[in-house]
Every structure is written in structure tokens, then in C-alpha cells.
């Protein structure tokens, strides 16, 4: 296994109290595999990724438990120095907002080349040539001329390609993409997603795709982990989850999005709001919003039940949920 | 849905143009060019109807919205409300028209004044148009509006920052409803909200339309949401509508290559679809509206472009090849080489989930 | 689906178009304001009965001003500087509260003498009680500072606000004028302009400060108004048909005023020290007015023999200026809209 997150807990200490952002997350990604982590804002999906990358703001954040095994070694036991060597070289991250993730006063070529200078000890000239090569790789037209341009001279889609190029520069084993296409237009989004998927296949990398977009997930993911209030509520291969969700939250999400191929009458809407991370309801965190909730949901925390060999659902009534969906 | 021919449409837009001048100079400004944000847009809106306008960022859809509610003055063209051109109005007459065309904004965080209470925000329309509600009646009306949009009327004295995004959007909608307008222009009303909340707000807009006999101009970049809510759809590209028709015509029988590309690029929440779905990946980016290509403005990214597209601007009309046949393909499409192509997989008969329970 | 749940409560986080890049944007806030997480949490907390959680305590309406005030009260910097300023204001109004002598009653025979019972700060070169003069000097400093600040804030925010709201040629002209004023060296300007004034009141000094100070505030006010008027709530008011004056008074001013308040508070301290500087140079206030600047000036000749004559008024000046600058800092932290 390339990456395995085990029982990760992250808290944020604020003046108003302790926010439990991640409460026991388990997931794993293999080489060449795409894991989509799906969740709404506040679900803890990005915080988990930041903890994996080691870019969490500490304080106010604090990892209070768990392990992050990368190629078998627990990253949380690493010293900051060792951690830095892993970052960039062995795992890299792509952010949503490429404009603010690139340095506006350094040319794109120098920013790309710097990776090689720092990690590979190349000379500037060599590094520049490598940068052009990378830019061609992510299909930026006229790369040789544009290598001297600054980030603001590129369009949003091109900037996101540069971010991808930068992440791929050292051919890491794992890429974490946090909402990589959310800020882009639909047609450009398709270009960028395609490119990312293709490069991933080519380099046989593990990819963790963090998103709120059920459509993007369906297009590229192999397996999905759905997060709610800092926990994984359902995990499954991508085909199964869309066919028959085994958790009422997943089911609600799938039913609440309008579809391109049908008009539909009223949309299903999940009632209520996600819990305050400082006061997560006892029992199942989703119980106040759940149409299937029973007494047990209010008192006991559901473990991740095994639905199938490669499928889990943190719902006491996952069977009913499955039956309910397949009955329609 | 369509009006009898005797009555003018509720809203009719013709030849709408908005150019923003590009200037140079410090004290004395010299015009050196123009951003052609909107460059000749025509459409009509009938009573009780929802017109969806979709397009990518920079296509001019938000500028159209602003002109409809008179936040921007058009450079050219007419916006006729019940036959009267509102772009020429000012003073009292303009104020009267404004009562009937209201707007819901995209960002629920900047569209409410953080220093005013919810009651003051929703009640402000009555301060500006005191003839609508007598002073003593306003508080009751505001509370009624809160109730209508699904918020607790006791929230009247709270401030916007005490609400979540979805609730704020409801407050914005309540403000838009206060004057009992006939038309609501909604500019990306749900795009800032989380998925599960989007559904709540869309359902609310649906319900209000029936309850208050509203007509909507619904502007969004999300094609699925636009389909859900719209009766007719206009697709915008670089300041113009390139294709328009009923929702079935646009989504199931698109004839303009841009619409086809746009539809095929939308990720569909169905993993089965990814194998058998044909995707049209457009190359390059949208050209700058300050430097619009000659002829057909989509030609720089179009796989069908020929010389004719460089020379001749295609008109928004039913293409010749479809003119004689009755059917969903016969709708307005501004392309010289219009051709029907199904890009959205048709609705499956058994339809597992999604849609209505 | 006809049934509509009463008062739906929903999501609690915000972000511009699409979810924000991070689920929880938390950063240390320094003074303990609420960052993204804080505000989103606050929102969730406020869900009232009727919500599915049914837990939220019914919360009172909280305006941003009252939030800022609550933050201020918890900030030790504010408490300390506030107490110092309160003390200074009180003794500038009633100096006799802490001294029973007159600053102008001097006894040359005691000139330059050091601390002694009843005269803790000693005597100055004219044999006047340094303690009493320092106490009385507060009045001039505080009044010059406060009056100049009020003048600067009113004039600057009026001109800057109009320029920012209307834009166009007027704005361009105003911007060039402020540039010109920024180019004038303050002390040199004071030496030239004030040396021709013979009046021995504080007004010429105050007038000079307003004349040179307004561009600073006007620039801030202009920028603040321009940012504020681009908010959708201003557009919303305009779409409703609101008049310009309504938009300015109801929507723009309350939201644009915070930076002006901050700049004015900090500037107050600098005006106090400017007054001392000008008086020191002999162009500000003149004896028999009691001013720290004048005392510092006359004491500077004897700094070797009798340093106490200089240190007390200079110390009072430093503390006063520092108190206002710290207050300005605390106010800025509390009003910073980014932290809400």
C-alpha cells in the first residue's frame, strides 16, 4: 500500500473551544489508484489531506492521534527535516487556486526549475530546460517562449496546468489534488481533469482527489470515501456507490443534485445543517438530519460496518439503506 | 406558457450591447479600446416563465443581469418591460419599474449589509418605496417574508453574520420579494452554497415562483441546475447568445458546437457514463472580450470552423437545414454548420436514483 | 413534495464560488477575533429552536459594533492604553485634581533644583515646579491632538468619501492634490507657515495640522469607500432605487468608517508629538502657554546639569503618544473586517 491513513484525529484549538475536525479517519491509496474524498465544506476532507502532506497549521491545529503510513513508514514520527524531503519529491499537492499558489514575482520557468535546483542539485540552465520539458508535458502551447512569463500572464486553465507540472516535476508517488478544478470553467475543467488522469496513468501515481463535486468523482475515481463531520461515513468502489449508496448521507447527496439528463420535479434536500465541530451530536453525527434515524443512532457511534469486501458504511441501518435504494 | 400575440411579452430584450471603455491617462482619459462584455443579445421572457442563461465566466451573463435591473446602463439596445423601454427611463418612472424587476445576488456574504439587522435589510425596500406598505405594517410584512422563505420570523433583529450561507441567501430572496415584483433576476444564486443547501434554495425558488407568479431570469454556469429550473435556456459565449430554445431542445438536441462541447464537458454523477460517453474537449481558452475574433466568435475553438466562419457572423435563427422540419432540433442556433448531436446520454427508463423519490 | 419543513436550517460554512480551499481556515488571530472557523461555528451555534438540532441557545442579536466592543474589552492593550488616556483626559480638564500649585508661579531662586518634598519632579530653569507644568502641559497636548484629529477626520473623510463615491474628474483632481500635500515636509512647512503667525492660541497649530493632515485620511477614506461601494449590498440598494444619499449614509459610511477611525486614532498620537516638535522649534505654541514642547525646548540647554527638567515632560509626551498609538492598534484589531 502506498499510503495508509489510520485512525487519524485532528483538532483545532480556538478561543471559543476545541473543534474536532478529523475524528478517526482511515483510508488508503495504492499506486496508480484514484481515491476521491468527497464531502461538503467543514467535513474535514482538506484537513486530512493537509495532515498527510504535513502542511497543517500547528497551532491552532493539532494531530491528536493516528498514523499516516507512507510506503510503510509513519510520517508522523518523522522529524520536520525528513518530512520536508518527502514533500515535493515523493508526494505533492495541487491546490484549488493556482494564482495564489504560484509566486507572482518569479517567472513560471524559474518556479518549475527551482524544484530541480533544490531537490536534484541541477544547474540553473539545466533546470530551465527541464522546466520547458515539463510545460510541454502538460501541453502548454509555445512552452519554450512562455517559460519566462509570470503567472498572471497565463489563463486560469494554463495556471492550473503549471501547478500540475510543478507537482509532477519530481515524479512523486502520490499526488493530492484539493478541488483542482473548482475554480475553472466547465470546458477548461474537462481539459485539466483529463490531463491529470492521463499523467497519473502514465506515471502510475496514487491520486487523492478532494472534491465536493459528485460529477467529477464519477468521472475519474476508482474508489470513494465520503466524509461527514470529520469521519468517513461510507467508502466503496465508485460504481457501487452511485448504483446503491449504503449510507443515508451519501444517498441524500446523490439525490439532491439536479441532473443534466433529466428535468426532475422537486429536488430532494437533506434537511438541517452539518453539526458544529465543537459540539458534534452524540451517537451518529448525522442523526439529527437523517430520515432513518432510530434511538440507537442518538446514543451509539456506528462503526464502519463491512458491507462488502471492499465496501464500508458507518450506518446501523446500511442494509435498509441499500434495500431502499435498490427497490426504487 | 406563451402569451397571446396581442399582449407584449413581459420582458423583451433586443440588441443589448455593453462595452466598457478601456482608457489611458491620468487626468484626461483617452479611450484606447473596449471590453465587449455584451455584444448584441436578444431574448424575451413571458409571464410565469423561467429563462435560464448559461455560459462560462466572462461570457457577459452577469452584465446582462445588471442591465436588466438597471445597475449598468446599456451602451446600445432596448430592454422593454411590458412594451416600454426601461433603459430610457429616469427618476420616478424608473423607480416604479424597479419595483417590478428585482435581483437576487450570487454571494450571500457580500449582498447583505453587515451593519444592518435582517429586519432593516428586508424592510429597506419599503423605506425606498413607501407607497407599497404603510409604516405601521412593515414589521409584520417583514416577518411574513421571513416566514415565506423558511426562516423563523423571530430572527428579525439579528445581523447577517449570525446566519449561514444558505440562510443568508434566503434573506436576500426575501428582500427581492418585498416589493412583490413580477420578475426576479437571479445571478448565480446557489453557486456559493454547499451541494446539499443548493437543493434547498432551488426548491425554495421553485415554490416561490408558483406562489407569487414570478418570472425568473436565472443566470448560472451550472448546466444541470439551469436545466432543472428553466423552461427555456439561452447559451452565451463571449457576449452573445449562441443558441436558445426550450430546455429539451438545448439539452437533448443541441445544434451549436459550443453548446455541445459545454454539455459534454459537464461531469455526470454516473460512473457508468464515463465509458460510453463521448466528450468533446475544447482546445484553448475563451478569447478576451477586448479582442473578439472576426466572424463567428467561437471559431477559434471550434472543430468545425471553416473560412466562412472567419468572414461571416452567424445569425441567431433557426438554421436552414432544420427550418422545414418540425421537431426539437428546429430552434435558434447561431452556427453556419449547425448539426444536431446528442451529447447528454438520454434518460434511462428505469432510472435508479436521483430525481424525485 | 408539498411539505416544507418549517424553517430549514442548513449548511454552516461559506466560501466564494464552491467550497473554500480548506475545510477549516483557522489561523491564530492575535487578539482573539474569530477567523473563518470561528464565524462558521458562531453561525452554527446560533441555530435557534426549530432547527433539527434543537440545541442552539436563543442568541441575542449581535451587531458588528458590539462584537468589536466585546473584543476590545478583552484586549489588555486596549485596557491599559484606554486607562492611560482616560487619566490624561481627566487631568487635562481638571489639572487641579492632582496638583494644587500654579504652573506659572515660579521662584528663580530654586531654578534647576532637583526633587524635594512637595515637588517630586524638581524645578525648571525659571524655578517653576516641573510636576505642575507637566500636569498642565497635558491640556494643550490633548486639546491640540483631539481638535486636529477631529478636523482632519471630518475634512479628510468628507472629501475622500465623495471622491471615492463619485469618481471621475473630481476624484482625479483630489488625488493629485493629496499627492502634492504628501510632498510637503511637515516640519519645514510648519516652520514657514507658522512663523508668520502671531496669535498665541492653539488654533494656528491645529489649523496647520488639519491643512497638512487631511490628505492622509482622505486617501484612506477614498480607498475604503471604493472597496465598500463594490459590495453587492450597495448594488442591491441601488437596484431597489435607493438615492445616493441613502446609499452613502446607510450602506457605505457605516461599513467604510472603520479604517478612518483607526488611522485617526493613531494620527492623534502623532499630532501630539508634532505639536511638541513645533513648540520646541519655537513656531508652535509660545510661552506663557504651558506645553511639553516648550518645556523640553527650554530644558534642552541644561540637559547636562539638570536632566530632570527634560526627562519629565519628555516622558509624559512619550507615554501619551504611545497610549494613542496602542489604542489605535487595538481598535484596528477589533474592527478589522477580515477577522469577521
TrEMBL record, chain A:
One GO CC annotation: plasma membrane
Main location: membrane
Keywords for the protein's UniProt record, in alphabetical order: ATP-binding, Cell membrane, Membrane, Nucleotide-binding, Transport
Record has Aminoacyl-tRNA synthetase as a keyword: no
UniProt membrane topology term: Peripheral membrane protein
Keyword Nucleotide-binding appears in the UniProt entry: yes
Cited CDD domains: ABC_NikE_OppD_transporters
Domain ABC transporter: 5-254
UniProt GO BP: peptide transport
Annotated GO MF terms: ATP binding; ATP hydrolysis activity
PANTHER family, per the entry: DIPEPTIDE TRANSPORT ATP-BINDING PROTEIN DPPD, OLIGOPEPTIDE TRANSPORT ATP-BINDING PROTEIN APPD
Family: Belongs to the ABC transporter superfamily.
Protein name: Methionine ABC transporter ATP-binding protein
Organism (species): Streptomyces populi
Automatic annotation (TrEMBL), chain B:
A Pfam family matched in the record: oligo_HPY
Keywords: ATP-binding, Nucleotide-binding, Transport
Entries under CDD domains matching the protein: ABC_NikE_OppD_transporters (cd03257)
One GO process term, biological-process aspect: peptide transport
Presence of keyword ATP-binding: yes
GO MF annotation list: ATP binding; ATP hydrolysis activity
PROSITE patterns named in the record: ABC_TRANSPORTER_1, ABC_TRANSPORTER_2
InterPro entries xrefs: AAA+_ATPase, ABC_transp_ATP-bind, ABC_transporter-like_ATP-bd, ABC_transporter-like_CS, Oligopep_ABC_C, P-loop_NTPase
Region ranges (Disordered): 338-357
Domain of life: Bacteria
ABC transporter domain boundaries: 11-263
UniProt family annotation: Belongs to the ABC transporter superfamily.
Name by which UniProt lists this protein: Peptide ABC transporter ATP-binding protein
Source organism phylogeny: Bacteria, Bacillati, Actinomycetota, Actinomycetes, Kitasatosporales
UniProtKB/TrEMBL annotation, chain C:
InterPro entries: BP-dependent_transpt_permease, MetI-like, MetI-like_sf, OppC_N
Ranges annotated as biased composition (Acidic residues): 1-10
Superkingdom, taxonomy of origin: Bacteria
UniProt feature, compositional bias: Low complexity: 47-58
Region (Disordered): 1-62
Keyword field contains Transmembrane: yes
Membrane topology label: Multi-pass membrane protein
Signal sequence annotation: none
Any Gene Ontology biological process: transmembrane transport
Subcellular location: Cell membrane
Any single Gene Ontology cellular-component annotation: plasma membrane
Keywords assigned: Cell membrane, Membrane, Transmembrane, Transmembrane helix, Transport
Annotated TM spans: 77-98, 140-165, 177-196, 256-274, 310-331
ABC transmembrane type-1 domain ranges (all copies): 138-328
Family per record: Belongs to the binding-protein-dependent transport system permease family.
Name of protein: Peptide ABC transporter permease
Record lineage: Bacteria, Bacillati, Actinomycetota, Actinomycetes, Kitasatosporales
